[in-house]
Specification:
Structural class: alpha+beta
Number of helices: 5
CATH superfamily of one domain: Electron Transport, Fmn-binding Protein, Chain A
Helix content: 10-25%
CATH class of one domain: Mainly Beta
Strand content: 25-35%
Shape: globular
C-alpha cells in the first residue's frame, strides 16, 4: 500500500481564579470559530499531488475532515538535527486548524515549531487477500498534511485546543473531568497546524488479480477491519460506587471510525462477560 501523497472578553462575573485552578469564566474552552469559511476542495501543490494510483485520491475538503474525524492517532514527522523523527500523538480539530499536544519538554514537539513538518492519519479498513502475492493490498483511508506549526501560547486557545483533543479521543470527556491547573497547562505544549496543504487517498473494494488467476481455485477476498473498545474496566481506586458514565458506555464494544463503505453488520461486538 502506498499513501503518497478576537474581541475583548466580557467583564468577569465570577470571583477571580484560584492560584492553581483556571476559571472557565476567564479562560473559556469553547470552540474557537474560524475567521474564514473553510475551502470546499483540497489544495493542490507539488507536495500533495499524487503520482501513483491517482484514482484513489480525494479532492474534497469534506474527505479530509472525515478521515480526521474517524482517526484517533496521528504521526508527526519532523527533522531534528538532521535526523527524521516520527512521533505518534493525539490530536483535535477546530475549523481549519489541527491541534497536536504533548509534553512541553518533548524535543520533537518543540523542534517542530517554525519548521516544515508532515502529519499523517491512517485508518485500516481491511486486509485485501488476492490470488497472487503481488496483488495483496489493504483498504485504507489516509490523510497527509504539510505545513509549519506554531506554538499555542494564548491561554484561551490552548484550553479550547486541549478540549478538542480530549473530546476527540473520548466524546464529552472534557465536560466530565477536573479542568487542568496552571501547572498542568505549563507542562503541556500544543501545536497548531493549518490544514491549508493536505491530500487524501482511499482504497476500497476487493482484490484485483491478473485475468489468468481468476480460475486458479485460490481463495481471495477482504477481511474488514475496524477499531472497537471493550467493556470499561473501572479503576480499583474508585470509591463510593461511582458508576460508569454514559459517555464511556457509549464507546464500549462499539465500532469507532468504521469505513462508510464497509459492508453492513452489527455495530456491537461480543466480549467475555459482556
Amino acid at each position: 500500500m502506498t499513501t503518497e501523497q478576537a474581541e475583548s472578553p466580557p467583564a468577569p462575573t465570577a470571583p477571580p481564579p484560584s492560584p492553581t485552578t483556571l476559571s472557565p469564566t476567564t479562560l473559556s474552552p469553547t470552540t474557537l470559530s474560524p475567521t474564514t469559511l473553510s475551502p470546499t476542495t483540497l489544495s493542490r501543490t507539488p507536495r500533495t499531488t499524487l503520482h501513483r494510483l491517482r484514482e484513489r485520491g480525494r479532492s474534497e475538503r469534506s474527505d479530509l475532515d472525515a478521515v480526521l474525524d474517524a482517526g484517533l492517532i496521528c504521526h508527526l514527522g519532523v527533522v531534528i538535527d538532521g535526523t527524521p523523527v516520527v512521533l505518534p500523538t493525539g490530536y483535535g480539530q477546530i475549523g481549519d486548524t489541527l491541534y497536536l499536544h504533548g509534553s512541553s519538554g518533548n524535543k520533537s514537539m518543540m523542534t517542530a515549531v517554525g519548521q516544515q513538518v508532515c502529519v499523517t492519519v491512517t485508518l485500516l479498513d481491511g486486509l485485501v487477500c488476492a490470488r497472487a502475492v503481488f496483488h495483496h493490498s489493504m483498504n485504507y483511508r489516509s490523510a497527509v498534511i504539510f505545513g509549519e506549526p506554531r506554538l499555542v501560547t494564548d491561554p484561551e486557545e490552548k484550553l479550547a485546543a486541549l478540549r478538542a483533543v480530549t473530546n476527540h479521543l473520548v466524546p464529552e470527556r472534557w465536560e466530565h473531568t477536573r479542568q487542568p491547573t496552571r501547572k498542568e497547562l505549563a507542562a503541556t505544549s500544543v501545536l497548531a497546524l493549518p490544514l491549508d496543504e493536505a491530500s487524501v487517498k482511499v482504497r476500497t473494494g476487493g482484490p484485483v488479480d491478473d485475468e489468468e488467476d481468476y480460475d486458479s481455485g485460490i481463495w481471495a477476498g477482504v477481511l474488514p477491519a475496524a477499531l472497537a473498545f471493550g467493556p470499561a474496566e473501572p479503576d480499583p481506586a474508585l470509591t463510593g460506587g461511582v458508576p460508569v458514565p454514559d459517555h464511556i458506555t457509549a464507546l464500549a464494544s462499539r465500532l469507532r471510525g468504521a469505513a462508510p463503505s464497509a459492508a453492513p453488520g452489527p455495530d456491537h461486538l461480543s466480549w467475555p462477560n459482556d
